[in-house]
Structures are given as C-alpha cells and as structure tokens.
Design goal:
Distance between the termini: 54 Å
Number of strands: 0
Number of helices: 6
CATH class: Mainly Alpha
Structural class: mainly alpha
CATH topology: 434 Repressor (Amino-terminal Domain)
CATH superfamily: lambda repressor-like DNA-binding domains
Largest sheet: none
Order of helices and strands: HHHHHH
Radius of gyration: 18 Å
Helix content: 55-70%
C-alpha cells in the first residue's frame, strides 16, 4: 500500500491482505453467523470450521460450494479474493502505511508458520515410520 492509498482503496479480503481462512471468517461475520451456527448449517464440527478459518485445513469441493452459497459470496472470491464478496469493513480513518505493512508481514509469518507446522507433522510421521522399521 502506498502513501497515497487510504482505507477506501485497501482490499481487505484480497489475496495480498487475506488468507482463505480470513475470507471465510470475514464473510461469516458479515453474514451475521457464529462459528457454531455455520458449522451446523454445513454439517461439520466446529473444530473443522475453526481449522478452515485458521488456515490449518481446507474444505472439500462440496463444502466449498456450500460455503459460498451460505455466505452469499462467489466461489472465486472465497478461493482467491477476486469476485463477488461481502462489503469490506468501513473505516473512518485511513490506515497508515506502516500499519498496513505490519499487518501484511504478520499474515505472511502466520502463513509461513502454518506451512512449517505441516512440514513438521510430515517429518514426525516419517521419523516414526523409520524408527518402527528398525
């Protein structure tokens, strides 16, 4: 975000600012649903929905379609942040560039940590198998 941009120009749910999980959570909140309510309507456990919102897992195609319908957003928006999504949060004051940069960096670190945790889980499984083999 450049110095000339203000909160009105900032794409809150775009690919640079939001993860897949952020878009689910944001659309759910705009739709006025709680996690338990959305999970019940999707037919999944709250922990499953929480995993999606925290970018620890992703739903299957049939649940993606249900999510986009229940949240009244397009499937492309849900996946990439491009397309029909909810209204972005209104802000009366512009977001300073340094704050926006910090938020983007935090999201990047969060994503990197989730990937590292997944890699660690896979390595642990391989180690257990190697130890079991002898």
């Amino acid at each position: 975000m450049t110095d000339s941009e203000n909160a009105g120009d900032y794409d809150w749910f775009g690919p640079e600012a939001a993860t897949f999980g952020d878009r689910i959570a944001g659309a759910r909140e705009v739709a006025g649903m709680t996690q338990p309510e959305l999970a019940r309507r999707l037919g999944v456990r709250i922990s499953t929905l929480r995993g999606w919102e925290e970018d620890r897992s992703e739903p299957r195609a049939n649940r993606l379609s249900m999510l986009s319908g229940l949240l009244n957003v397009s499937l492309p928006w849900l996946l990439s942040g491009e397309g029909q999504g909810p209204e972005e949060p209104a802000s009366e004051t512009p977001i300073p560039t340094d704050v926006s940069q910090i938020l983007l960096e935090m999201r990047s670190v969060k994503t990197d940590m989730a990937r590292a945790a997944d890699q660690l889980t896979r390595l642990e499984k391989r180690l257990r198998l190697a130890i079991a083999k002898g």
